[in-house]
Amino acid sequence: MFVPRKLQKRTHPGRAQTRTDEHYQDACAPQTHDTPAAHSVDVDAGKLERLVGFLHAVLNPLHVALSARDEARTLPTSTAWSDLAAAIAARGSGIHLARLLQLVPGLATRCKSISLLAEALTTCKTRAAAGWYGLDAFRVTWSDGYAEIVRDLVAADGIAEVLGSRLVYIEHIPPTVRTRPQATEYVARLLKDGADAGVFGVLEPAVVQHALMANKTAELGGRWVSGRGFFVLDARSVEYLCDAYPWDLAQRVHKGEPLRCLSWSQWERLHAMYAHQLAQQSAAPSVKVEDKWWRGTMLLLRLPVREGCLSVPESGDRTVGFWNRHLKPQLERHVPESIAYMHTHHDAVAIRTAHPACATQLLAHFPQLHRMPPSDEDDQWCQLPAKIHNAAHTRLLALDHNHPR
């Protein structure tokens, strides 16, 4: 029988395998490819995650309200954003998911079914959108805090008057929190004001200070540097965080979380003090080495460490990292952020503090410490580069406000 060339067996006759061998190898061969069902599950999971991220970005109350404000000022007729903002502000019985598909720009192209949208909204609600809305029988009902932000931002003449009482600046967020949704979930866990409390936005300080609070439009979804930022909450949650995690360093060391919080009014006050301090530094004459402003900042801890409040492991290389791990936490537990640098100096540890007042406080807490002789202190400082000199002097001047000399 004639067999087309494409169907002819290409193997050499001498190497041809029997059907039994082929069947045996097929049965023993490892399954390297996923089944169609597993592949479908992976695709569906990825699609759901992308949809959740999209919903968290576009349903952010600041994004909805500011988009509606911009379009109301440029377009004569109502738009999708203005219709969505009006429906949210009206609240009523909520919005059916079928209508939400039409109201949110770009949502209909990413989501083709109401069931998928319901699953994505449920997932988003349990994560970063907690406190934004409720979902029941394919109908979204917006929370009081969410609807108030949208309604007030759309109706107000200026953004600052609406956001002023709702902004809190948080610093020292753990490094594991790297994205806006993660930051939203982290701060939401800190709140204890009730189920309705939610985090309605994570913003860059520059965006808040130079754009939003100056009543200018800004890109809310731009790059965010983790570790700190402004968060949009309700006024009661702002007050709670500022009381629980105050900016005062002396109180912060007794808290479980290494956070510091500022309300917008406190932020403005601190920023004004910082600007005033910079103006004074620029107007002040350049620092001369002969001034010896560093006197009183260097301490010594004799080695080996005798019994007392301080304890240092006997084993280990006496490097800067060693002292930072074992000695610095003990010192700063009593005088927060007082240590600038530590290194081994002959038969002792040289401890450079940020301010002479910090050195005095450390001496009062730890009898094992001693002041470095003035001549040795001058030698130590004269060996340092100009960049370190300038940075240390700048910080010393900033601390003069709290520790006058």
- CATH homologous superfamily identity of the largest domain: RRM (RNA recognition motif) domain
Specify the overall morphology. elongated
Task: Return Rg in Å.
Answer: 31 Å
The CATH topology of the largest domain: Alpha-Beta Plaits
Strand and helix order: HHHHEHHHEEHHEHEHEHHEHEHHEEHEHH
As residue ranges, the low-confidence spans are 18-33, 35-41
In whole angstroms, the N-to-C terminal distance is: 107 Å
Give a verbal description of the structure.
The chain has 3 domains: 47-151, no CATH class; 157-278, Alpha-Beta Plaits, CATH 3.30.70.330; 289-399, Alpha-Beta Plaits. The longest helix is centred in the first third of the chain and has 23 residues, at 36-58. It contains 19 helices and 11 strands. With 405 residues, it is of the alpha+beta class. 48% of the residues lie in helices and 12% in strands. A hairpin with a 2-residue loop joins strand 2 (133-136) and strand 3. Helix 4 packs across helix 8. The termini are far apart. The radius of gyration is 31 Å and the shape is elongated. A 4-stranded antiparallel beta sheet has the order 5-6-4-7. Strands 9-10-8-11 form a 4-stranded antiparallel beta sheet. Strands 1-3-2 form a 3-stranded antiparallel beta sheet.
Q: What are the defining features of this structure?
A:
alpha+beta; Alpha-Beta Plaits; 3 domains; 405 residues; four-stranded antiparallel beta sheet
